[in-house]
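Case study 2.
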Amino acid sequence: MKYCIDLQKTSILDDVDEITIDYDRKNLNIIKYIQERPQKRFILNILDLTESLEYKDIEKLNAIYEENSDINFAIKLPMYYEILDELLPTLKVPFFFQKVVTNWEDFLGYISLGVSDIYIGEDLGFELDKVSKIAKEHNIQIRTFPNIVQTQWKYTSSLKSFFIRPEDVELYEQYIDVLEFWGDRHKQPTFYKIYAIDKKWYGDLQEIITGFSAKLDSKFTIPRFSEKRVRCGRSCLKGGICQLCDRIEELSKTLEKADIVVDYKKKKEDEVNG
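Prediction:
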């Protein structure tokens, strides 16, 4: 799994794979900073599309990309507008949109625009086998925010909404390429440590996942919870009989009462040993 955080003063900048920088045309040091770090991929975040089109920022960045074979960056645009239709096909620089894609129509539409990456969430987070297959066929990276409950309807059960626990990153990395962290940028190093280094959270998921309303202690939750969710299609919301999330929650509470902690390390050893 690759990780992306915003540019800031933190020791983990050397560890992450991608760094996001809010693009400022007046800051002449940005390109130099990128050139000095060829091992990193940089995401230049365009904050004001109208202004950037007026000053031809995108065309200028595209020219810089074409003229420098040793430079590694992509442009992140706020969202798709028809005004971009003539410009996008001319770009050689990788580009994608800030908007999180939650349905198949938008997903396929973004692919047709030639994007390099796509943020996915909500329903698509439950069809990752299909999403990943199509993305790989088009050489597109799938990105998401693991630490926030992603759902259209605020009263939908948190357990039936899209999010990713730290313990499940290894499972999801076969479908998702890059993780970013939702919320205050200064908390991103902490989330990086939890997800990328510790790879576990021994506590209530409400403490690390924004909008999570259920009482669920991650250390009492069995792995099958996510193994099913990556491809279940949220059948429970479409009249299906699956009640896995509810059963996992009940089992978690039973394990918590008995003080039986799920041993993920043993599970991995069993998988290795067959």
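Residues 108 and 146 are 22 Å apart (CA to CA).
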